[in-house]
Structure to design on (562 residues):
């Protein structure tokens, strides 16, 4: 394959969404507010935002399980309304809530989904091997008796068993511990290498860097769409990490400081931006010394996705 | 916050909890001091929920000596329940009741006087800036508000200890930080906070942190000491090092 071909393949839009809106309770609750975006073939695309932002509503519309009020959406040139039957065949979907049969075993669940899609475990074993192999020793165990991490692996195997063109995962890592989350993202990267386009939602900002592009979402709207690197670049102010011995008092004192634009806790440090165009560090230090802070550390840092998200939320 | 290490509000000695031949809590021993923020971390299935249920008086241990707020977990569970508050991400408030009804309901369960409830409710709604939503159903207020309200209700009866089970899961980053402000305030007012979380940055906000792996407590110290001990830059790295060791 020549390079030119590769590039044109990569930029082929496989998901197109235009002016999508959806409300509940006779218009009282607006879950999606006029959303438009497109996703390229082979992308690992992340929807990042807190609960109640509209991520699940969006995914349910894209998976043909819910009708939008207005707007259109197509995946692989199949319309979510007109072509829903064809579309369902090429989609893999892992809903936020565990939706497999609790009273069937691991093996039975997988067999069931393979049969529904007219295939067999053997036919697509290659695709799920990495993931399934970890739970295969327990294949006779009922799904209802599995731990959280094992349920997640089984659900992903079931979503993949018909070799979908597009995989849609609704908060697969919510409530999952930090180690299992890292492992899950490694699995997604390997699937992406096999050419599957992946849409994934998450409330964890630190997972953004694992995606090719991310949409930051809040209150039914998309705040920004870009690569993680460009999203971070769009944070224009100088950002400082500030710490002292008593971090909680430091935060309150910084909030009172006249030059402060924003101050947020980040683990053992505070992230600080100034109203001044060029932050006057000496002045800041003097102010903190004047307030009896000890072991003061001030350091210029690169913003992370959470910094960007909070900045966009405030605007 | 000056924590007095002689003033123990929870003492756990050789706690064992078995379900059949499965050992969920394998000989846990630790103390929690009055007024501290105690972070209870661990991978899924490490045994956190099991231990927390025992400390709340909802489940009996197989063996071990455990006291919570001065009461025994075998015989004085009703007294424990009166002296603690509890909130979790999964269940906190009744969706089909209003803000005010939820406050009255929970305060009533704890046997608070009607006049006191009325006065404190007004104060609480003021502080949360939710006066306009007093008669709104919980189902239609944003998650972040819900969690802040749920926390306020969990400490409404001024308990000695409040147990928080993943209180900030799925909450937006700004509200998550406001929530921690409330936790600090409660601790400052002398309420001991026992909290679980999957956000490793939040582990840094705790006075001490314990990390459970496979039913055991593998580490218990201040975040600073843990980072030094495990030669890690942050709690995330500490967690990964500990949890990966089990294989």
């Amino acid at each position: 394959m020549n390079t030119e071909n590769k590039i044109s393949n990569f930029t082929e839009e496989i998901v197109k969404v235009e002016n999508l809106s959806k409300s509940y309770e006779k218009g009282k609750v607006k879950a999606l507010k006029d959303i438009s975006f497109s996703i390229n073939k082979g992308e690992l695309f992340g929807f990042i935002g807190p609960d109640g932002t509209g991520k699940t509503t969006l995914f349910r519309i894209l998976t043909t399980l819910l009708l939008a009020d207005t707007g259109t959406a197509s995946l692989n040139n199949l319309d979510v309304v007109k072509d829903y039957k064809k579309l369902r065949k090429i989609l893999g979907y892992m809903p936020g809530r565990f939706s497999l049969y609790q009273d069937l075993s691991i093996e039975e669940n997988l067999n069931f989904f393979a049969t529904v899609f007219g295939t067999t475990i053997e036919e697509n074993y290659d695709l799920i091997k990495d993931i399934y192999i970890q739970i295969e020793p327990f294949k006779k165990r009922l799904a209802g008796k599995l731990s959280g991490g094992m349920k997640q692996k089984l659900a992903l195997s079931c979503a993949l068993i018909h070799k979908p063109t597009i995989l849609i995962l609704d908060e697969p890592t919510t409530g999952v511990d930090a180690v299992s989350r890292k492992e899950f993202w490694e699995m997604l990267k390997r699937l992406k290498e096999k050419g599957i386009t992946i849409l994934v939602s998450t409330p964890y900002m630190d997972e953004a860097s694992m995606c090719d592009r991310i949409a930051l979402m809040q209150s039914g709207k998309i705040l920004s769409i870009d690569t993680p690197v460009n999203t971070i670049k769009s944070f224009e102010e100088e950002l400082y990490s500030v710490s002292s011995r008593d971090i909680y008092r430091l935060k309150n004192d910084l909030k009172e400081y006249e030059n402060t634009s924003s101050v947020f806790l980040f683990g053992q440090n505070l992230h600080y931006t100034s109203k001044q165009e060029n932050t006057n560090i000496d002045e800041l230090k003097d102010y903190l010394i004047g307030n009896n802070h000890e072991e003061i550390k001030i350091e210029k840092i690169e913003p992370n996705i959470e910094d960007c998200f909070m900045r966009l939320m405030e605007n | 916050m000056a924590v007095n290490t002689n003033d123990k509000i929870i003492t756990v000695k050789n706690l064992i909890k078995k379900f059949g031949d499965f050992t969920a809590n394998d000989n846990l021993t630790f103390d929690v001091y009055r007024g501290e923020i105690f972070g209870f971390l661990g991978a899924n299935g490490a045994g956190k929920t099991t231990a927390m249920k025992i400390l709340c008086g909802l489940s009996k241990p197989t063996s071990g000596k455990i006291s919570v707020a001065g009461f025994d977990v075998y015989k004085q569970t009703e007294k424990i329940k009166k002296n603690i508050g509890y909130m979790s991400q999964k269940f906190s408030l009744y969706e089909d009741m209003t803000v005010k009804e939820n406050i009255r309901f929970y305060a009533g369960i704890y046997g608070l006087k009607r006049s006191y409830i009325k006065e404190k409710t007004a104060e609480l709604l003021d502080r949360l800036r939710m006066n306009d939503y007093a008669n709104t159903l919980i189902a239609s207020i944003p998650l972040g508000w819900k969690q802040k309200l749920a926390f306020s209700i969990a400490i409404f009866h001024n308990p000695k200890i409040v147990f928080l089970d993943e209180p900030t899961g799925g909450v937006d980053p700004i509200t998550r930080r406001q929530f921690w402000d409330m936790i600090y305030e409660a601790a400052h007012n002398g309420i001991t906070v026992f909290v679980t979380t999957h956000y490793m940055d939040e582990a840094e906000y705790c006075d001490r942190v314990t990390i459970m792996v496979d039913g055991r407590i593998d580490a218990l110290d201040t975040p600073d000491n843990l980072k030094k001990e495990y030669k890690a830059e942050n709690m995330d790295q500490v967690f990964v090092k500990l949890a990966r060791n089990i294989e």
